[in-house]
Amino acid sequence: MLTYDVYAATRPGEAVTLRASDFTLPEEGWGQVVLSSSSARVGSGWTDLGESYDSRGLKKRARRATREVPIPPVLVRLIRFHIDEFGTTEDGRLFRAVRNGGLLSKEYGNVWKAARLSVLTEQEAKTALAEVPYGLRAACVSLWLESGVSPAAVARRAGHSIAVLFRFYAKAIHGSEDRDNALIESRLL
Q1: Domain segments of the chain as ranges
Q2: In this structure, what is the dihedral angle of CA atoms 7, 14, 87, 33, given to the nearest 10 degrees?
Q3: Which among 15, 32, 68, 125 would be 20 to 30 A from 60, CA to CA?
Q4: pLDDT per residue as tens digits for the range 21-45
């Protein structure tokens, strides 16, 4: 599940609700995911139905709003592999808990902690580097910005406003002055 966050900038709550039908997976090239819902673990006392999670629309969007995100060929291949290898739940979800229930943040959080410890050095593991799964979303947004994708396109893909993008990712945007100057100079010649 975490791979989806780093390639498509999904929020963890969006990733747990992904269904095979949300994807366009061509044989080659870029695909697309249409995000339409989120499932946040909030505790049964805070939901209308007494469930331990709350199904809702996308963050700060109308309930039925969607967000279309282009996905790179590497993620298209990973999703195809995942579906072939693990299938889906009866309702089409890609990710499930032990008994086919909804995946809880505690479960993927435990996997994240173990994965983090297995790939980071002991010194790195003591830092905040990739401390929580949400960091993958931030890494994805930063990568898009540092790759030269326009801030407007990055904001749209990530489901941010331009104001939020500039507030939280200003360092990634402002760290590319030499590249920006070269792009402008190439157009002036």
Answers
A1: 2-188
A2: -50
A3: 32
A4: 989 999 999 999 988 755 565 555 5
Residues with Cβ within 8 Å of 38's Cβ and at least 6 positions away in sequence, in order, are 11, 13, 14, 17, 55, 56, 57, 58, 59
Q: What is the pLDDT of residues 88-134, one digit of tens each?
A: 988 888 888 776 666 666 677 788 889 899 999 999 999 988 888 87
In the DSSP assignment, the letter for residue 93 is B
C-alpha–C-alpha distance, residues 165 and 71, integer Å: 20
Placement of tokens 């002991």 in the chain: 122
Tell me the CATH architecture of domain 2-188: Orthogonal Bundle (1.10)
Prediction pTM value: 0.74
Q: Quick one: 15 exposed, middle or buried, by C-beta within 10 A (0-12, 13-18, 19+)?
A: buried
Q: Which two tokens stand for residue 146?
A: 């540092």
